[in-house]
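not sure who needs this but someone in the group chat was asking about Thioredoxin family protein from Halovenus rubra so here u go. i didnt clean anything up, its just raw.
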Amino acid sequence: MDETKSERSGSGLIAAQNCPEQLADETALDAFRQHNSVALVEFYTNNCGICQSMEPVIGTVAQALNLSVGLLNPRDDPTLVNRFQIQRIPLLVLFVDGDPVGRRDDGFVSGNELTEWLREKTDRQL
């Protein structure tokens, strides 16, 4: 059984209502982004060290901003990789009203930098 990113979370920094939701596939992703008016999705792989180090940052920011977060391991899904043009991980994609409004694949970012980026992309105070 594969270890999921949410199972690795032992930091205690993520409140229950803001726990990242593990998304199984493209169908789950589409439902998640349609269900949440503002949602951040992290594309990751299990062996990505930067992805693991971003987990508590994303959790803390999600809790502070009351933001829905989804986690998706694209594995070997070429349709998903092509759809989101995934070239590096972690890839963060921000959705507002179901539409992608921003993406980052520049490695580790601090909580302050992530918060600023999210607020800038949503044109409002989260």
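also The chain has a mean pLDDT of 86. if thats useful
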